[in-house]
Amino acid sequence: MAVTLPTKMESLSKTVQELVMKGYNEVPERYVHKGGSSGGIISASAPLLDVPSIDLSLLISPSPAGVEELKKLQSALSSCGCFQATNHGMSNMFLDKLREMSKEFFALPMEEKKKYGNTADDIEGYGNDSVLSEHQILDWTDRLYLTISPEDKKRLKFWPENPPSFREVLEEYIMKLKTLNEFILKAVARSLNLTENCFLQQYGENESASVIARFNFYPTCPRPDLALGVKPHADASAITFLLQDKEVEGLQVLKDDLWFRVPVVPYSILVNVGDQVEIMSNGILKSPVHRVVTNSNRERNTLAVFFIPGSEMEIGPVEKLINQERPRMYKTVKDYVSIYFQNYQLGKRPIDAAKI
Ligand code: OGA
Ligand code: NI
Fold first, then answer.
1. Could you give the 3-state DSSP secondary structure of residue 45?
2. Residue nearest to atom 10 of ligand 1 (CA)
3. Tens digit of each residue's pLDDT (9 = 90 or more) over 287-339
4. CB-ligand 1 contact for 250 (6 Å cutoff)
5. Where are the alpha helices (DSSP H) in 139-165?
6. Confidence of residue 37 (pLDDT cuts 50, 70, 90)
7. Which residue has the CA at smallest separation from atom 8 of ligand 1?
8. What are the φ/ψ torsions at residue 354 (nearest 5 degrees)?
9. CA angle, corner 256, sides to 250 and 262, nearest 5?
10. Distance 302 CA to ligand 1 centre (A)
């Protein structure tokens, strides 16, 4: 029997998982990226990106291997804007536990997940894209969006109680990432021959910075050539940590105007520079534009954690990185996340608003 497409209202109010459960073999109009006359424009067969792997334990070593690793870090972040972190201090078992608990959450009955549901004007909680305009193309994904820090912005009513270990395991992960975030901001500064704290100073204290966790669930999609899991964007953060699915690829990065697939490395954590570190580095380090493609036969689960300077912090290019050959590229900005969303909604690349 042919399954007809949902009406416009239906497709707006549903999670992607609900659409998939209905067994549609087409994607609703609101999810379609229109291409040329043949329609499909999205290719999952992009070439593989050689994302450098960085051994974090070497980054503090004064040995030749340590110096080499720092160079590799700098070169990774100024070319593709990301690297695969190894020796990050988290066990395989722990990373599997995180992945498992995310899968368990999205596998709960819809009714239970909707207890944590987001609303039209608030992205926090469970659900899919907030619909902000008639023309917006929606992402083929359901998310659980949680503010972890600052402490007074945390809203536990959105934190799943099921699986029972959810809160505790997530808190533990974030605690470990906070240490890594500081460690990486320091290493990145050293890799550019700057004093260790110069990026960290702009980032500010952990008490005022915001940390957002986004559990992304990508259901199978009947038309991967038409819909995207996440449309092209760069992150508004200073640093983003992505725990990818252990088996299913999907992330692509734009480099030299071409899309490249990011490989799955099961127990590495993918670290990428966000717009705010690109600004601090006066454009030397690149906040990569990336997107997620969908897949017709396998679901995909990822966990992105964003480290964002407090909204009162002034973010601007470090003086030492401004010179005659490299004039100042960016203004000093405050509350970049607001600038980001205003521009994102207008369909512009947000960081351009900070350019001089
Ligand atoms: C994001 C993101 C990539 C992925 O959440 O900002 O880019 O593979 N996610 O889920
Ligand atoms: Ni992203």
1. coil
2. 302
3. 999 999 999 999 999 999 999 999 999 999 999 999 999 999 999 999 999 99
4. yes
5. none
6. very low
7. 251
8. -95, -5
9. 20
10. 7
